[in-house]
Amino acid sequence: MSKRIFVSIVLAFLLGEQAFACGGCVDSGVGYSSSNASIQNLLQEETRTAAEILKEALIVAQSMATEKSNDLSIQKIERFEKEILSKSKKEIFLLEQQNKLESSNVNIKSMQ
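Structure tokens predicted for Periplasmic protein:
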């Protein structure tokens, strides 16, 4: 996406230079000069191009922020899953130990 923005900037620059060099040029006798209207048109076009580039940059930034947020959410979920797994293993171990103790108690009572 950043390549796209770079290409847009380069194209805007090149097109802007061409428009300024040839658009609305008038022979003043000493050389070619641009009329006020052509300069205003050029500035308006450059403003539109800059606005489009900024919109694209905003879209890229938003998608990057969303991607980062998704990555963080996935990390939180994975951490939570690990915690649950760890607690479950501890709980299973404690239940097994409790069952062994109860079984031993039953065996002792049956021996008496």
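Helices lie at 2-22, 36-111.
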